[in-house]
Amino acid sequence: MKQPILVILAAGMGSRYGGLKQIDPIGPNGEIIMDFSLFDAYKAGFRRVIFIIKEEIETEFKEIIGNRISDYFEVQYAFQNVEDLPAPFKNPKDRIKPWGTSHALLSAADLIDAPFCVINADDFYGKKAYKIVYDELQNMITNPAKDKPEYVMIGYELMKTLSKHGHVARGICDVNSAGYLNHIVERTKIIEKDNLAFYTEDESTWHQLPEETVVSMNFWGFDTSLIDYLKAEFPKFLDNAMEENPLKAEFLLPNSVGNLIDASEVNVKVKTSPDQWYGVTYQEDKPQVEKEIASMIETGEYKSPLWGNMND
Fold first, then answer.
1. What total number of domains does the chain contain?
2. Which of 282, 300, 279, 310 is nearest to 32 (CA)?
3. CA end-to-end span of the chain, whole Å?
4. DSSP H helical ranges for 245-306
5. 19-37 per-position pLDDT tens digit
6. Cis peptide leading into 86, omega within 30 of 0?
7. Three-state DSSP class for residue 136
8. Which residues contact 91 (CB under 8 A, 6 or more apart)?
9. What DSSP string describes 33-87?
């Protein structure tokens, strides 16, 4: 029987951070955020991982984490390439920006053959989220949807996901009383000011977001029907993108899921994580994340060094 797959999006350019934050150590023994994500995923039951990276960092990536965790996981790699577009589309001459998270998943389409979890490489999500999603994926395997697909999203409280050092992008969620996602919209510029959250679409007008807003941090559980949908939708996206914003338009996962919900083609169950999220959008975020990791090690939530203590 097929087993759930962990898919890690690690092809981001890290432009705001100023380096390859995906492989920047934050633990006392050189652990990176992915170490903790993989450790938590392993404890939840995952045994297969697909890393989506840029091909030019493959050697360094394998040296820093890929080869090391192959003792615990079946490891596979997919490469997101800005030139990888369906015919007849060609990448604009001056475009270097990746085509987004939905495009990243398409780069791994040939490897994804079972229900899968998607996470960002540079986000610390907490232990409980992995167990929730693993159990949901196992249910997708043993009880396939008979009507329409039912995905799962781990939601976080907006105010717990903001950076004090600049703007962030978040998927703003409308969740109904039954715990399903009504709608999601990607807000690419959200800031914290005076313990409140605001977003802008035009760089001049700012709108306040409610404190209780649930956001997507790109922690999802899908079956393979999503891949089929993305394959069909990407050419339609490119038709518009090439005309309206060929250098910066992105085929984003929250928008893809939102379109499926709006078309009543899927249901998306929302599970709000009780854990604290941590991330390093900017270099200035790193000391706080290091401090929080050290605190969790001190209280015994994690061991140090991390790997080699799998039975504890």
1. 1
2. 279
3. 28
4. 253-262, 286-298
5. 555 567 888 888 889 999 9
6. no
7. helix
8. 82, 83, 85
9. HHHHHHHHHHHHT--EEEEEE-GGGHHHHIIIIIHHHTTTSEEEEEE--TT---T
How far apart CA 119 and CA 34 sit, in angstroms, is 10
In this structure, which amino acid lies at residue 26? I
**Angle at the Cα of 217 from the Cα atoms of 212 and 218, rounded to 5 degrees:** 140
3-state secondary structure 149-198: CEEEEEEEEHHHCCCCCCCEEEEEEEECCCCEEEEEEEEEEEEEECCEEE
Query: Strand, helix or coil at 279?
Result: strand
Phi, psi of 233 (to 5 degrees): -85, -25
State the maximum Cα–Cα separation within the chain, in Å, rounded to a whole number. Answer: 56
Name the packing angle between helices 33-44 and 127-142 (round to 10°): 50
Domain that holds residue 176: 5-298
Give the predicted TM-score (pTM) of the model. 0.91
Residue 282 lies in a domain: yes
For 244, the 3-state DSSP assignment is: helix
Residue 307 domain-assigned (yes or no): no
In whole angstroms, what separates CA 103 from the centre of its chain? 13
Looking up residue 156, the CATH number of its domain turns out to be: 3.90.550.10
In a domain, 142, yes or no: yes
200 secondary structure, DSSP code: E
The model's pLDDT over 152-183, given as tens digits with 9 standing for 90+, comes to: 999 999 988 888 888 988 889 999 999 999 99
Lookup: tokens for 301 = 């939530």
Bridge partners, residue 191, by sequence: 198
> Given a cut of 80, is residue 18 above it in pLDDT?
no
DSSP classification of residue 207:
E
Tokens 């890393």 — which residue? 51
